[in-house]
Specification:
binds zinc ion
């Protein structure tokens, strides 16, 4: 019973978040938090533009989403795979172990760090 309550609450939170990002544009609304790293340093963090990506994707504008944060757009399927692996963790432990192996985690870490450096060097 508790498991279903958690699932329903989680689904409501996710749907509410989707609704907020669907209706409000993070560029024009003060409703959304600004990136503290960008505010303090003037440099973009790897996640800068993620809110605009969500809004753009929900509006069906893949090109705008890609311009705001290409890595975020490319990683959304990866995040979905991780979510799926977590859900089927007991049924498919091999998938979960593979995705959580140090080789995969380090690879993702290197990609994120490279993205962080490159986007600040080239203004992406
Ligand atoms: Zn940021």
């Amino acid at each position: 019973m508790r498991k279903y309550v958690v699932i329903v609450v989680l689904a409501l939170v996710i749907m509410s978040g989707i609704g907020v990002y669907l209706v409000f544009d993070p560029l024009e609304s003060s409703l959304f938090p600004k990136c503290p790293f960008l505010l303090v340093t003037g440099y973009k963090c790897p996640g800068c533009g993620s809110q605009r990506v969500l809004h753009s994707l929900l509006q069906g504008d893949l090109i705008a989403a890609f311009k705001y944060n290409a890595l975020m757009v490319l990683f959304l399927p990866v995040m979905a795979i991780y979510g799926y692996a977590e859900i089927v963790r007991t049924k498919k432990p091999r998938l979960y172990r593979c995705l959580c192996s140090s080789r995969v985690i380090w690879s993702i870490f290197v990609v994120v760090i490279a993205w962080w450096v490159l986007r600040n060097m080239f203004g992406w």
